[in-house]
Amino acid sequence: MQNAQAVYAQGINEVVELILAIGHQQSVLISGDIGIGKTTTLDMLSERLPTHWPVYFDGTTKDIGDMFIPRISDTETGSYVSFVPNEEFGIHHGQPVILMIDEIGKANPSVQNALIRTLQERTVGSTPLPEGSIVFATTNLAAEGVGDRLKLHQYNRVTEVRMRKPTNMEWIEWGVDNGVHPTVLGWARETPAAFQSFTEVEGPEDNEYILHPRAAGRTAGVTPRSLFAASRIVSAGLPAGTTTAALVGTIGPKAALELMAFIKLAEQLPRRDDIINDPMTAKIPDNVSAVCMVVFRALSGMDNVFVGPWMDYLTRLDALAQGIFVNGVRAKGYKHRDTVMKNKKFTDWSRVNSHLFSVDKA
Prior knowledge:
Shape: elongated
Number of domains: 2
Number of helices: 16
Order of helices and strands: HHEHEEEEHEEEHEHHHHHHHHHHH
Structural class: alpha/beta
Strand content: 5-15%
Helix content: 40-55%
Radius of gyration: 24 Å
Strand order of the largest sheet: 2-5-8-1-9
Distance between the termini: 31 Å
């Protein structure tokens, strides 16, 4: 079964579509490697369902008394106790909720038991969630050894779906729209192995970039989450020694030292103002990786002022770089798409170079 789940592991977009389709009736349990963006699904679902209230419920920080507290009610026939749900369930907002129970596999067993009815019946204690509410949960892979466990009868109440790691190109597409430093994007493009799951390798020595449960003493490695943290470190502009130390403690020594080599390549990059002021003479790096960083930086920082000069500069780059750029523009969700596609220089270029539109998709 574990092998079947790995074979049919879904990307984050597919997982979101599944929850949108069945989440109001059947709870999905998202399982996957550490730091791959399982909790990001809440933000993605919230964007798709603006009439729902997004609710993050952290299973690791709760005890049974944190879920609901007793309330005594007096009636003509006597008194009784009812239970008032924690505000974190979002019921008091009076609108459908998207309830994500994060890290349910690490929750206190009593909390796991109390959440069964929520997962199966859309009810917190005896208080129903608003009509149309969506419920799902997240957990890490049991094989990672970080304490994620559910009982068989609990698994039987949910639909467990394995969420795979993004590929390096999928992560780059996300990174362009989320301010990831061009140097980190460039390194990611050249290092697809850093996006492997530990389940895809024989042993920890076969991939020194990633976290592996059998790698004694390896506490830092590349995950989508830690690589985003590395971008923050690189963007801080600290001295090389400090940057290296911070990267080693964030993405591990192998990735850190390679990324520092990419940082040195940044000296070859033309300044943005150089491209704006004279795109036909602005410096072109003589290293392929540095050229890719120029393209990623352009995609991230695109605006109406830059797009025209950039298109002139782009014509001086090779077909691979041009293909990377146009595929980035055409990527689903690229936030500057209209800025580029409505520019006359881009439309003229597209007519002449349509054969390049998928050059970097192989």
